[in-house]
Amino acid sequence: MANTVEKTRKQIAKKKGGSIDALHENSRNAKRLHYAQHRDERLQKIARARGKRDQPLLQRVSHFRDIVKDGGYKALSLEEVHAKINDYVHEYDEEYEEVKKARRSGRPASTREDLVRMKIAALTKEQKDGFYMPDLTIEKNVQLLERWEGEWAYLTNLAWVKVMGSGTVKPASFPPHLS
């Protein structure tokens, strides 16, 4: 991934005749190495945060890819899309009921129960306001989804839509502008 330290170390070693062990603690070259290491750590931290933020959308695309895979990579009708969205929104209901039943009466909700309830509430709200997903009603888009291998950059090739709870479909852009 980030390899600024290795490049800097190589440049300093070339300049110093192959030895970077004899650097003074506060020398310019030592500061260059320190800055390069700090930069690499910062870039790795940003990449981890981006990956964590993008993971739910990747899981969503993977879920809908599996759905069209089971259907032989054929485009779906709008009614089928609404049914699949409803299934996706309510897939955590069973887990929520299990966690709720496991809790003794009179006890506060567990952290897991709260997280699942918040996830269900967020998905339900998104379903009502406009569910963001790849357009599965277009054959070409379904074929593009078939070739997807899990890469974030490839998702820009797909046509995206927001399927409203009222039954209408609005075109959307990728990446989503989630607030």
TrEMBL record:
Residues 1-36 are annotated as: Disordered. One of its GO terms (cellular component) is nucleus. InterPro entries: Tma16 (IPR021346), Tma16_sf (IPR038356). It holds the Pfam family Tma16. Belongs to the TMA16 family. This is Translation machinery-associated protein 16. It comes from Schizothecium vesticola.
